[in-house]
Amino acid sequence: MSSGASVNTLQSLVEQLKLEAGVKQIKVSQAAAELQQYCMQNACKDALLLCVPAGSNPFREPRSCALL
């Protein structure tokens, strides 16, 4: 590898590390509590928890047309 490519790689690594150092960290217990609260607040909108009306279900089996 050339020295120019190595310098560019190291510069991008330093920039990435600077970005990661600026990320606010919180305790896992706090993150879990916030995630649980978010899930409870949005449960009424979750299609996996609610029944989807048959008429608006895009994944239903297509109806077949029978000719008499």
TrEMBL record:
Start and end residues of each G protein gamma domain: 3-68
Membrane topology: Lipid-anchor
Primary residence: membrane
Keywords: Cell membrane, Lipoprotein, Membrane, Methylation, Prenylation, Transducer
GO function terms (MF aspect): G-protein beta-subunit binding
PROSITE patterns from the UniProt entry: G_PROTEIN_GAMMA
Source superkingdom: Eukaryota
GO biological process: G protein-coupled receptor signaling pathway
Pfam families reported for this sequence: G-gamma (PF00631)
Gene3D superfamilies: Transducin (heterotrimeric G protein), gamma chain
Membrane-spanning residues: none
Subcellular location, record wording: Cell membrane
Family as reported in the entry's similarity comment: Belongs to the G protein gamma family.
Known partners and oligomeric status: G proteins are composed of 3 units; alpha, beta and gamma.
Protein name per its UniProtKB record: Guanine nucleotide-binding protein subunit gamma
Species this chain originates from: Sciurus carolinensis
